[in-house]
Structure formats: structure tokens, C-alpha cells
Specification:
The structure holds two protein chains of two kinds. By secondary structure, chain A is mostly beta strands. Chain A has strands at 4-7, 10-12, 19-25, 38-43, 50-54, 58-59, 67-72, 75-80, 89-95, 102-103, 107-110. In chain A, the strands form two sheets. In chain A, strands 2, 4, 5, 6, 9, 10 and 11 form a seven-stranded mixed sheet that branches. Chain A has a four-stranded antiparallel sheet with strand order 1-3-8-7, with no helix packed on it. In chain A, strand 5 (50-54) and strand 6 (58-59) form a beta hairpin. In chain B, a hairpin with a 5-residue loop joins strand 9 and strand 10. Classes of the chains: A mainly beta, B mainly beta. Chain A binds chain B through residues 37, 39, 41, 48-51, 54-55, 60, 90, 92, 94, 96, 99-106, and chain B through 35, 44-47, 50, 59, 61-62, 95, 100-108.
Chain lengths: 111, 115
């Protein structure tokens, strides 16, 4: 299975300041169709996960534009330009290139 | 409103069975892949199973292969997960999730396996 590793696992943040989460995969996530199936999810306390970013850098409708995704191959990053109080929660990256799909361990964003 | 609503969870003894259902409303269902993803207490999500739009391809995590069966009824906009030979480690919230890209998640249904 493809192993997806996030860092840090805990991220204390200051409201209004930027934050960044790293995600690395054990092998390249480039699929045969040329796409890279790396998604980012946010899970607020007591809620279901919600997708923020798909295929590395595409922001979902409804996801604030302060969230951005980047990266290629095996190294990926989720950035929040200015953290707001509603951003507190756990963030997961997930690879959808290889079966079985696998998630990172999660990064807990704490204010 | 786009919605996926799961049901069928509950308390079951080890070795028992449950059948989960997920009804889609206000959302495209029949032409897309669907998945079940579970999340154990205090843990991250884990992909469990997926099924192609027409049901012709199914995929399973090794941990559930041979015990769980995913299926769908496109006429009823409903996804199913038949879970047999349940183990304590299957205890989790089970989410129904839409498309290969996992763009829409249900609210989850809780499965507790305990004696």
C-alpha cells in the first residue's frame, strides 16, 4: 500500500498568521492519465470530513480562497494564508491514485 | 441540497452481521463511483470499499475482504455495505462518500462491535 505521511501532527497557530502542512507519499502519485490524485480534507470537531482541495491544487467550491494546495510527485503542501478561528480541526491528505486509497495520519490545527 | 444519508449502524456482537445503507438525494449518484470510509474512535479515516457506477467493479481493503460486500441500486439511489463476521476492530463511524475524488460525505452511521 502507498504510505502517506503528514507533518507536523500538531500545529499550534496564531489567528491571522499563515500555516502550512506537509504530505509525502511513498511513491509518485502521478497516474497513467497524467493526473495526480492527491486531495486534502478538513474535519472540524464533531463533523464529517469535508474536501477542500482535489488533484493537488484545485479548490472545491465553498472552500475559502485562503486555502491553497501545491506540490508534485511525492511531496505536497496545504497552505492557509491567514488562519481564522473556524479553521481549527484536523486536516488529512489522501491519495486516490492507487488502490487501496490511503490517508495521512492527520494534522491537528490548534489556536 | 446535496445529501448522503447513512443508516443501519448499531451494536452487534463479535461474529455478527449488519447491513449499512446510504441514500443519495439532490446529488448525482448513478454515473459515479461510491465508497465506504470508516473512522475508528479518535483515529483518522480509512478507506474500506468502493464500487463503480454500474457495479461492475468493486474494491476492498484487505482488512475487510471476504467479510464485507459493497453493492448499489441505482434505481433507488442507494449504496449498501453488507458486513459479516464482524470483529471488535470494525468498530467505527462508517461514512458513505461520493466519487473517486470523495467530494461529498454523509454524516456517518456508528457501528459498535462488542460483547
Amino acid at each position: 500500500d502507498v504510505v502517506v505521511t503528514q507533518s507536523p501532527l500538531s500545529l499550534p497557530v496564531t489567528l491571522g498568521q499563515p500555516a502550512s502542512i506537509s504530505c509525502r507519499s511513498s511513491q509518485s502519485l502521478v497516474y497513467s492519465d497524467g493526473n495526480t490524485y492527491l486531495n486534502w480534507f478538513q474535519q472540524r470537531p464533531g463533523q464529517s470530513p469535508r474536501r477542500l482541495i482535489y488533484k493537488v491544487s484545485n479548490r472545491d467550491s465553498g472552500a475559502p480562497d485562503r486555502f491553497s494546495g501545491s506540490g508534485a510527485g511525492t511531496d505536497f503542501t496545504l497552505k492557509i494564508s491567514r488562519v481564522e478561528a473556524e479553521d481549527v480541526g484536523v486536516y488529512y491528505c489522501m491519495q486516490g491514485t492507487y488502490w487501496p486509497f490511503t490517508f495521512g495520519q492527520g494534522t491537528k490545527l490548534e489556536s | 441540497e446535496e445529501q448522503l444519508v447513512e443508516s443501519g449502524g448499531g451494536l452487534v456482537q463479535p461474529g455478527g452481521s449488519l447491513r449499512l445503507s446510504c441514500v443519495a438525494s439532490g446529488i448525482t449518484f448513478s454515473p459515479v463511483w461510491m465508497h465506504w470510509v470508516r473512522q475508528g474512535p479518535g483515529k483518522g479515516p480509512v478507506w474500506v470499499s468502493g464500487i463503480k457506477s454500474d457495479g461492475s467493479i468493486t474494491k476492498y481493503a484487505d482488512s475487510v475482504k471476504g467479510r464485507f460486500t459493497i453493492s448499489r441500486d441505482n434505481a433507488k439511489n442507494t449504496l449498501y455495505l453488507q458486513m459479516n463476521s464482524l470483529r471488535v476492530e470494525d468498530t467505527a463511524v462508517y461514512y458513505c462518500v461520493r466519487t473517486i475524488g470523495m467530494d461529498v460525505w454523509g454524516q456517518g452511521t456508528t457501528v459498535t462491535v462488542s460483547s
